[in-house]
TrEMBL record:
This is Uncharacterized protein. The lineage of its organism: Bacteria, Bacillati, Actinomycetota, Coriobacteriia, Coriobacteriales.
Length: 386
């Protein structure tokens, strides 16, 4: 499994894969759900999968094609069509209802393959990204990199899986599993945002590019690395970072010397206000890197992961604590980001806080800005589909 299908696999929370495909006697499964509820989930997943019973599985893959059908429950965790599979030659490019061959003649090292379960192998995230980048723009590649280098994934489960995950959340049984934790709003509803350790680092991506024996996708991923930054915790942070950090020639605001989720240790007094010893700032400019000489933090607010009065109170406490640490705090909402005029005002305000002189954009820069915004402000769930 490769390409878009592989990226979808790596977006899927390990808990969802456990529920879909682990042995029924798995200790955690037995703790989470009853055998009857588990069998119901798996039957519903198999029936809603594009690889439902009766799918034509005669492919160039032979037995492997049938194995894909047999793994339909696992693949249905986040899956919408024929499985993207590696095709080493043009003769192997014979699509079916089961498989969508992706031509990739470059040898795939064994260390770039991982067992997905039920006889299926999946390429690792960096190679999957490179394959998608062949068809994607550098900006879309940067957005995907922002997620893979960040501490989040956006997961839209099929209805049967979504219902069970919500049941677990309602019962306070939605456990942190393999480092993945689901985001919920103040009403206890799943937001679709999952936090987890980064799947990639800039170093691992660069190493893969250096070892490539062909140039397919390499230039796009390199260009994406120039735009994306590690450690973002949400789509909004990635989008804001690219729009604010990219140089003006390419359509950005050229305010780029920042980092995502900078760790700030609070003083005892500030910690009392925040009711925590440390804070993480969504976008952070070090005092030594800006003309104003004062650190600046941009805090991103979105209904998907900052929702309701409880979060508002926590964010207000954090903002006060950071200001006690001589950090200027600026709030950015999703509504401000997507409205070009409001974002322009925000950018000028932020530039003033940083001590950066604002300059009127040229016609060419305005056109580049419109193009960049068009590419950045997209439906995040559909990013892998190119």
């Amino acid at each position: 499994m490769c390409d878009t299908s592989a990226l979808l696999f790596w977006r899927t929370p390990p808990l969802a894969r456990l529920l879909a495909a682990a042995p029924e006697d798995d200790p955690l499964l037995r703790h989470l759900v009853s055998p009857h509820r588990l069998r119901q989930l798996r039957a519903d997943l198999a029936n809603c999968s594009p690889l439902a019973p009766g799918a034509r599985c005669v492919t160039h893959l032979g037995k492997a094609g049938r194995e894909l059908v047999d793994a339909r429950g696992l693949l249905a965790t986040d899956f919408r069509g024929p499985v993207d599979v590696l095709a080493p030659s043009r003769e192997d490019r014979r699509p079916s209802e089961v498989a969508r061959p992706r031509l990739w003649s470059e040898p795939v090292p064994p260390d770039q393959l991982c067992p997905a379960g039920q006889g299926v192998l999946v390429v690792l995230p960096a190679l999957a990204l490179r394959q998608v980048a062949v068809r994607a723009t550098p900006v879309r590649t940067a957005l995907l990199l922002g997620e893979l280098l960040g501490s989040f994934s956006v997961y839209r489960p099929p209805a049967p899986m979504g219902e069970l995950l919500q049941e677990l959340a309602d019962a306070s049984a939605l456990v942190r599993y393999q480092g993945w934790q689901a985001g919920v709003d103040n009403g206890g509803r799943l937001t679709g945002l999952w936090s987890h350790p980064p799947l990639l680092t800039p170093g691992t991506v660069s190493d893969l590019l250096e070892g490539a024996t062909s140039r397919r996708g390499v230039s796009k991923v390199r260009a994406g690395l120039e735009l994306a930054r590690p450690n973002a915790a949400s789509p909004l942070e990635v989008q804001a970072g690219i729009l604010l950090g990219t140089n003006s020639r390419r359509g950005g605001e050229d305010l780029g010397r920042f980092s995502h989720n900078r760790h700030v240790t609070l003083s005892p007094q500030a910690a009392r206000i925040a009711r925590q010893a440390t804070c993480f700032c969504d976008l952070f400019w070090e005092a030594t890197d800006v003309p104003s000489g004062r650190a600046v933090a941009v805090e991103c607010q979105s209904i998907a992961h900052h929702f309701g009065t409880q979060s508002s109170v926590r964010d207000a406490d954090r903002a006060t604590a950071l200001q006690m640490m001589d950090v200027e705090v600026v709030q950015l909402t999703y509504a401000q980001l997507v409205d070009a005029r409001r974002f322009s005002v925000f950018s000028q305000f932020l530039a003033d806080k940083l001590g950066v002189a604002s300059q009127e954009k040229t016609g060419r820069e305005l056109r580049a800005q419109a193009k960049l915004r068009f590419e950045v402000l997209v439906d995040w769930e559909d990013l892998p589909f190119v």
